[in-house]
Every structure is written in C-alpha cells, then in structure tokens.
Amino acid sequence: MTGKQTRWQQQFPIKSMLILISVMLVIFTALVGFWIPENKPLTTAATATEIDSFRVEKGVFDLRQWNPEMNPLLSMNGDWEIFTDQLLTPEELPAFQPSHEPPTIPIPAEIMPGKPLSELDANGYATLRVRVLFPENEGIYGLKFAYFASAYRVWVNGKELVSAGTPVTNPAECKPRYLPSELLFHHVDGEVEVVVQVSNFHHRRMRLRPVFLGDGQAITRLTQRQIINESLIFGSLMVIALYYGVLYLIQRREPALLSLATAAFITAIRSGVIGERVLVRLWPQMPGELMMKLGYLPVFILLPLLVMYVRDILDSSEMDRAARLSLWAVLSFTLFVAVVPVSIYDAAFQYGQGLILLGSIYLIYVMVVYGFRKKNQGAYAMAAGSVVVLLAAGSDMLREFTLWNAPELVSEGLLIFIMIQAGFLAWRFNHAFLRANTLATENAAMYEEIQHMNRDLEEKIRQRTLELTNTNRKLMLMSRTDALTGADNRRSFEEKLQKEWHRLKRENQPLALIMSDIDFFKEYNDQFGHPEGDACLRQVAAAIGKTLRRETDVLARYGGEEFIIMLPNTDMAGACRVAEKIRKNVEALQIKHPYSQIHRVITVSFGVAAATPSRATTPEALVRRADQALYAAKQQGRNCVVLTDEQHTIPPKDLQSEAKNGLQKEPPKNLQNKLENDLPNGFRKYLG
C-alpha cells in the first residue's frame, strides 16, 4: 500500500461522507416532494383563488366551476354534515335541506379523549355526509381516503363502494381496520351524495384524515405513487437488514452489524404499516391491533438500538453503561408495546417522538466528545445521519401536535441514516480487506510452504485412514461371518434376531426359525477326515443359501454341523415349506455317506418354530422351541421336518413312530386338526 493511498483512505470519511450527505439530502427532498399529493399546483394567482374557493360548506362541496383538466385533484376539507351516535345508511338519512343549518364537523379532524368535537367523542360512532355538486360534464371520478377512525364504510349515491373494518355501536363487536382506500364512481347527473359511517373503540383518539377527490386517473396515480414510494423505502430497508444480518452471522465479531440490521428491519416494518399500508395490502387479514403495534414499536426501541450501534462503532468504554441501559430499554419497550392496548402506548407515542429528538441530540453530543475529539472515522458518518434523523423527528413531533402540516418523515430520515451507515461500514470493511490483503501478500511464501506441508501430511493421513478403514471393514466382516461357510456366525445371527424381533413386534407380524443339523456328521468327519468334512459343510450351507430367496432371510452357522435359519414375516406353514425344500435340495446333492444309519447320502434334520413377537414371549424362547423340535426330529428318525407350537412338539414325545425313507407318520388327530387350515395336505405327513 502506497503513502498516497493511505492519505486518500484517511480523508475518505470526510470527503466522501460530505458527498454522500449531499446526495441523501437531495433524495430526501425528492421523497418528500414525491409523497405530498399534487393537489395545490399554485402556478398563478387565479389558480390559487380558484382552489381556495373549493371547500365543503355546511355539508356541500360545490365544484360546478371546477376544471378537472387544470386541477385534477382536490382535498375535501371543510364542514361535513354529521349525525353523532348514529350509524345510518343513505336510505335512513333525512333529506338534505339547503336552508337548514345541519350539525357539522371540520375535516380533517382529530378528536382527543375528553375533548368532543361537534359532540363526537373519541370513542364513539357517527355518520358523515357531504353533497358534491359537479360540473355538467360526465366522467369517471374517485375518492381517496386515508384511514377514517378505526373502522368506516363509504356509500356514493346510495351504493356501498368500500369498507375498512366493521363500524358498529357495540364496542365488543367492533373490528378495527386502519386502512386507506380509494374508490371510483361514474358521475352523470351533476350531484353526488357521499355517506361515511365511522366508529372508534380501540384507539385513544379518533382521526378523520383528509379526503381527496379527483378524476379517476388522478386518484389512481396518487395511490400508485404513494405505494411505489413506500415500497421503495420498505424494500431498501429490508435489503439492508438482510445484508447486514447475514454479514453478522458470518462474522460474529461485529455487533454493530446486528444493531444496524435490527434498526433497518423494524424501520422497514414501520414504513410498511403506515401511509398506504404496503404490508397490509400484502396481508389483507392482518389484525388491526398487530398493525398498530408494528407501527408504534420502532418509535420506542430505535433510539436504544442506535445508542448500542454508536457504542460498537466508536468502541468507547465510556458508553458501556448507556449501551447496557439501551439493551434493557429495547426489551422493556418491546414487552410494553406487546402487552398493553393501543390506547395506552398511543398516549406515549407523542413522548416517543420527543425521545427520538432528544436521542438525536445526544448522539450528536457523543460524536463531538468521543468521535471528533478522538478523530474516530465513524463519527462523521454518524453525525451526518443523526442530523437527518433530528430534522425528521422534529418535523414529526410538530406534526403530532398539529403545529406542522407535513407527512411522516421519520422512516425516510432513518432510511438515510442507515444508508449513510451502510456506506461507512462498506468502506470500513474494504479498508480492513486491504489491510488483510497486504498481510496475506507479505506472508505468501510462508503460507505456500505451509500449504505444501499440509498437503503432504493430508495425503499421508488419507492413505493411513483408508488402510485403517479397509482393515476395520475386514475385521468387522470377519467378526460377523463364519470363515468356513461364509454364512453369518452366531453372534451376528443373535443381533439380527433381536432387531427383527422388535420390528415384527411393532408390525404384529410372525417370525419363524428353522434349526437344522447334518445327520451323523461325526461319523462322516471321522471316516473321511476334516478337509472332506469342511467341504461337506460348505456344500450344505450353499444349498441352504440358494433356497432362501428374500434379502431379509438369514442363514447362520449355529454350531459345528448345526445351521439356523431366520424367516421374518413367515408363519409356520411357510417355514415348513422352506424347510422341506431345503431338505430335498441337500439330499439332491448326493454327497455319499455310507456310514449314515438312515441313508447312503448326506441328509439333514429340521426343527421349525414360529411365533408372533409379543411381550408374552422372547426370541430366546423361540430358539429353544426350534431346538426342541430339532431334537424331536432326531428322535423320530432324522431326515425329516418337525414343527412345534407354543404348547406341543409335533409329534409328541410319547408317539411311537418309525422312520421310513425320511418320512414320519401323521400327528395325533387332535393336533392334526389344529394345523388343518395352516398346512397343505402334502406337508402333513412330514410333520413327524
């Protein structure tokens, strides 16, 4: 970094911020001009006299001399006819009498508690009427209402065209909706009657805001301009809030980012629920109470958030106490607005405006004491933004006390403040990036060497890890597999049995076990030797494995020449069919065994047990029953399939039978009938 670059960067907060302030003031002025309705284009003295003459007098708005082409938009200020404590439809209203002096109320009006205006209380209801006399020319005209009280309905020539909320006489039935609205109507006969019902039971005061009348295009253009203006403010603030919120999540060491993101977010929310109510237009069913809370909350917590932001930017320990108090203030004010009704925090709103005014003055004082004197670069940006907020807050405070006729400017002022801070933070991050880039360049050689060493080390670690993983995989496979036959070992089988038992108990499905033993295998092993015995075990295991079709079926070597088969979702009949098929497949191997006492080839005996897992039994009990059935098969001559239920082994021990060609006699009649519906006739003879 050169010395010229360093001097430029040191001068940036002064020069660039002055340019940025000038740009923001121009934008601020443009926004204010863009917001104010173009209802007073005072180009000549004649025009000014003409517009001043258009005023509602005793409930009559005489526009017969009005030229819509020269003045497309008028405000309906003046004395509207009022019927207090009555909600009347146009049909229920008395006929208009020009010679009669009707009770009137000046519009716009703000009725405070205890100060009735034309006998209309702040918490009450009434019907307003105005008779508009148009020129003879026919056309499409419109009315633009800001929110009228808490709820209102509008009729034009006896036809209801718009409503916001539900005006009622009973406070319990009132549904407040603080919404602006615009309506268009077709004028033909030169006279239009406008009737408005209003009621207010939720707000501390009743506001009857200005009503604008004009041709249809002027009303539509006015609404569109205001919506675009507020949407731009809302969108800009939300983008800033999202950007700095994500930036704070990325690098937690900058708490100022969180304060700025929060301030931008709540300011965006406030700008979306005032004026044209952009958020309410997006969410038409938003409760009126929630909308009011979202509008008031930023007024109370923005100042503490800004104090916390200033503390983090200036990094001044002298402001630690003020920052802690501000944090508690944010929490307290949020709770206050959340739990109390609108009438209470609305009363505190005017003082909240004063807090913003005093807070801006305090922030400027902090800039001078802790910023300018200590030559802190962030002081210039915050001082410029605080001046803008100070002017906006002062304008809104005068407006709140009806001493100044201007739109609300706090949102625009805060937008400018936040944009100035965003520019400063961008410069600050850029400055930090340049410093970090310089350090990185100076240490590039060392960094590259370390990276090279790390790559070598990572490669060695990767190779060692791969070798260790493969070794562990082989060890795991060896620990769960029988080395001779390739089937699962006993440990693996018991783990899978427990898992399937719990699954089938949840699903209420059966589980079957087949315990098998090679007949007279000891004699085979003794005569032919262990190598031939091992080959025989492998062939038998392969024949059993080929018979099992499903992935969930499990074959395991349970002992020396014993195998056990687990068949999930299989009942007794199905297990018996599988066992008989295995028996035939093993016999079909034709492994010669001249030393067998029942056959001249290798044969297998089977014991079958099945049950539906439940709390009344255990997997160990099912294994014992299969083993008992296997024992019964050996007792009944071997090379057969014997099954057992929960009470009996079939055939019972006292049944005298003889083995003949590997087949067993039928079970006793009482047990045979028990299985009549479970097993096909072709299998009953194998039940031993």
From TrEMBL:
Q: Where is the GGDEF domain?
A: 509-646
- Species: Anoxynatronum sibiricum
Q: NCBIfam families from the entry?
A: GGDEF
Q: Name one Pfam family in it.
A: GGDEF
- Stretch forming the signal peptide: none
**Chain segments annotated as coiled-coil in the UniProt record:** 443-474
Q: Which residues cross the membrane?
A: 12-36, 232-250, 257-275, 295-314, 326-345, 351-372, 379-397, 409-427
Q: Where is region (Disordered) located?
A: 651-688
Quote the protein name from its UniProt record: Diguanylate cyclase
**Among its keywords, does the record have Iron-sulfur?**
no
Name the domain of life this protein comes from. Bacteria
This protein's UniProt keywords: Coiled coil, Membrane, Transmembrane, Transmembrane helix
